[in-house]
């Protein structure tokens, strides 16, 4: 159905329908591409990003902790040398010191 035919059939001005109207097929195709998930309140959202933020391994963290705790390096130096966030090194050292 063209825009002109739709405007006559439903008694709506053609400009209201506009050039950017979407068919049910277009909406369904878009919906399937995005793979929306329902919210608890009934809306929808995009899927969450993977929670793989850690860009270092546990071995590097252990080596950084050992270097800082032995006094060979400062936290900032160990963070740069072993590729571990400085805040992670600091929080792990604090956690280790609390348990002693």
Automatic annotation (TrEMBL):
Per UniProt, what is one GO molecular function of this protein?
DNA binding
Source taxon at top rank: Eukaryota
Residues forming the HTH psq-type domain are 58-92
Q: Which residues form a coiled coil?
A: none
SUPFAM superfamilies in alphabetical order: Homeodomain-like
The molecule here is called: HTH psq-type domain-containing protein
